[in-house]
Write a structure and sequence with these properties.
Largest sheet: 5 strands, mixed
Oligomer: single chain
CATH topology: Neuraminidase
CATH architecture: 6 Propeller
Distance between the termini: 24 Å
CATH class: Mainly Beta
Helix content: under 10%
Number of helices: 0
CATH superfamily: Kelch-type beta propeller
Shape: globular
Strand content: 35-45%
């Protein structure tokens, strides 16, 4: 399910169910500036190749064309360029998928994206948009092997260029774009969880390692957001247990600062996170023993302090959902309540 919140009324608002996409989890969701586009993922039985566009101002869903849409998949990435959504990679029951597509919003039209770079079929990789190219990196390739390879795709020319890498191969890591660099961190490496990372500068095609001094412990299934000056990572899991620790990384000083654990959310992984411009909001995820984490929390890095999201009429605990920030509200959509896959959504305004 999904929804919206308005603090003046202190309530979550359910999103329209008319023309809503089918129930699913593990889909992607991006924000265009006016609409949220959700695409692909899995239902109870199959990978999906469908999606929809949601306008929170009108509380309205519009189905998106399936003509020439990419094949059904999950574990893919989706980025927004300012004009189009580009999806890449992912997996289906036959393994990793070495293709993607551009969805042209104004025309409601798909255009295929192919590559001759053999190893670009992958899932649980990351993708960032730099302003003129999509950089994909890491993830799982053939037979579940992790890779340290990546490539940059320029949509205006449809050209790919491989990028060098001198950091450990991994999948299930996070990546943020700072305006100049892509920072990748943690994830699952060759038979171990990682707390290493690197900063990649596309202009120079160079990597710099992130400091390990005071870095948070190794993990995967964590989240990462970019604040404008710092990357905040939080949560995740090791082989033994979920975590409720995190850290703030400053690329300008190459230094870490741990986030407060006072009133922090319960340890969890597979949750979702967004940056609002002043705070990080986290939602959902798995706790120990596969239990669903209830609700969400707000982290203020200026105060290094956690606070609760209001719980009146809130959506149920969720996994495999999406979470986007619109500029004045969050939209939670889809995922599972532990038993059933959902196609409901909720919106929640944090400020007027």
């Amino acid at each position: 399910s999904g929804g919206r919140y308005n603090p003046q009324k202190d309530q979550w608002v359910p999103a329209s169910q008319q023309q809503v996409p089918s129930a699913r989890g593990g889909h992607t969701a991006i924000w265009t500036g006016q609409e949220m586009i959700v695409w692909a993922g899995l239902d109870q039985y199959n990978y999906l190749d469908s999606g929809g566009r949601y306008d929170p101002q009108k509380d309205q869903w519009i189905p998106i064309s399936q003509q020439q849409a990419p094949s059904a998949r999950g574990g893919h990435t989706a980025i927004w360029t300012g004009q189009e959504m580009i999806v890449w990679g992912g997996q289906n029951k036959n393994g990793q998928i070495p293709n993607g597509a551009k969805y042209k919003l104004e025309r409601d039209q798909w255009v295929g994206v192919l590559t001759n770079l053999v190893e670009l079929g992958r899932f649980l990789h990351t993708a960032v948009w730099t302003g003129n190219e999509m950089v994909i990196w890491g993830g799982y390739v053939d037979n579940g092997r992790v890779t340290a390879s990546g490539a940059a795709y320029v949509p205006t020319t449809s050209n790919w260029k491989p990028i060098i890498s001198n950091i450990e191969p991994r999948g299930g890591h996070t990546a943020v774009w700072t305006g100049q660099e892509m920072i990748v961190w943690a994830g699952v490496g060759l038979n171990k969880y990682l707390n290493t990372g690197g900063r990649y500068n596309p202009s120079s095609n160079q990597w710099q390692l992130t400091s390990q001094h005071q870095a948070p412990s190794p993990r995967f299934g964590h989240t990462a957001v970019w604040t404008g000056s710092e990357m905040i990572i939080w949560g995740g899991t090791t082989a033994e247990k979920p975590l409720n620790t995190g850290g703030r990384y400053s690329p300008s000083s190459n230094q870490w600062q741990l986030t407060s654990q006072h009133q922090a959310p319960s340890p969890r992984f597979g949750h979702t996170a967004v940056w609002t411009g002043s705070e990080m909001i986290i939602w959902g995820g798995y706790e120990a023993g596969g239990k669903l984490a209830e609700g969400g929390r707000i982290y203020n890095p200026t105060k290094d302090a956690w606070s609760h999201l209001p719980t009146d009429q809130k959506p149920e605990g969720k996994i495999l959902n999406s979470l986007v920030w619109t500029g004045n509200q969050i939209i939670i959509w889809g995922g599972s309540d532990g038993q059933t896959l959902l196609n409901s959504g909720w919106t929640f305004k944090t400020e007027e």
